[in-house]
Design brief:
Bound molecules: iron/sulfur cluster
CATH class: Alpha Beta
Strand order of the largest sheet: 1-2-3-4-5-6-7
Strand content: 5-15%
Number of strands: 7
Radius of gyration: 19 Å
Helix content: 25-40%
Length: 316
């Protein structure tokens, strides 16, 4: 069957895919390079809490070359070599400040860190992962200024739109602050992204479908979805091993079904950056799906096709 429909985002894929966005903007693949710049976060250092979010262990997703003992330039160079094996031809890169809360230092230090990344050959922009309570007017003004010259994204960990869930996972902030900061950031001309976990305790299909509608109202450039995974070294590992029946971990089949239903309700203007996460088997407490995230994405796209559906089909 020849796929011929061109969707709102200008190509024949059935969701507004991140990789296609980059090809249309920059004419080629753009490779993200993870960086650990030695940040911590207020949910760990005592400002908000000391326990951290219950699902969190930053080691579980960090490539081996990301060590805060190395300079930003070293991590970028090693990241380029690391990815060259898989993506030989990438010549444009985004420095992804990924570990912990990457706006949680004084602005003068942030300027040095971001500036070092942007000075590396081939680096065309920044993706900065942070919490909604770790930015202020001064930092946003600076990022708005940078956004006029570079591709800059502020990526907020939001995880859930339900305050009860956020409390259960010890996020240390509510949904309201997340919404306000997303609106403020986007309103200042900074590309704004958000990360959500699918399958948190207490969130069944009804709540997740509503989540898609709530997200759709946010002025987001991109969104990332990850399935809940119980990671070694997290508080959730202890909670899960003590009371496994408190957790409903999605099978791959059920996850794809709920994700298709969520995507059907999602604003088609929001670029979908990820539909699944990947934790190294060494860090998995529960048995994972034994599948890379790009393979999950392929199954997801097959399902959209089988069901003849697409992102935003039921978006209102
Ligand atoms: S998920 Fe982010 S905000 Fe939560 S404890 Fe980990 S680093 Fe801190």
């Amino acid at each position: 069957m020849v796929e011929s429909t061109t969707y709102k985002w200008g190509n024949t894929r059935r969701f507004n895919a991140y990789s296609n966005y980059f090809r249309s903007q920059f004419g080629e693949r753009v490779q993200k390079l993870s960086i650990n710049a030695g940040f911590t976060c207020p949910n760990r250092d005592g400002k908000v809490s000391t326990g951290g979010c219950t699902y969190c262990n930053n080691q579980s997703f960090q490539p081996a070359y990301c060590q805060p003992s190395k300079s930003i330039s070293e991590q970028i160079q090693e990241g380029i070599s690391f990815h060259r094996i898989r993506y030989r031809n990438a010549s444009k890169f985004l420095a992804y400040f990924q570990s912990y809360s990457n706006t949680y230092k004084p602005l003068s230090e942030l300027k040095n860190l971001y500036g070092e990344a942007l000075s590396q050959p081939g680096v065309i922009g920044l993706i900065i992962g942070t919490r909604p309570d770790c930015v202020d007017e001064e930092k946003l003004n600076y990022l708005a200024e940078l956004s006029r010259q570079y591709y800059v994204v502020l990526e907020y960990g939001i995880e859930s739109v339900y305050n009860q869930t956020l409390q259960t996972i010890n996020r240390g902030h509510d949904y309201e602050i997340a919404r306000i900061m997303v609106e403020k950031t986007a309103g200042m001309g900074i590309r704004t992204s958000a990360h959500f976990i699918i399958g948190l305790p207490g969130e069944g299909s009804e709540k997740l479908l509503n989540t898609a509608s709530v997200i759709s109202k946010l002025p987001l450039h991109t969104v990332k979805f990850h399935q809940l995974q119980i990671v070694k070294g997290s508080q959730m590992e202890i909670d899960y091993l003590a009371n496994p029946t408190d957790f409903h971990l999605f099978s791959l089949h059920d996850y794809l079904n709920i994700l298709v239903a969520m995507i059907e309700r999602l604003n088609p203007d929001i670029i979908v950056e990820r539909i699944a996460g990947e934790v190294s088997p060494d860090y998995q407490v529960n048995k994972g799906w034994a599948m890379r995230s790009d393979q999950v994405t392929q199954l997801f796209e097959n399902k959209l096709k089988q069901q003849d559906t697409w992102q935003g089909k039921y978006y209102q």
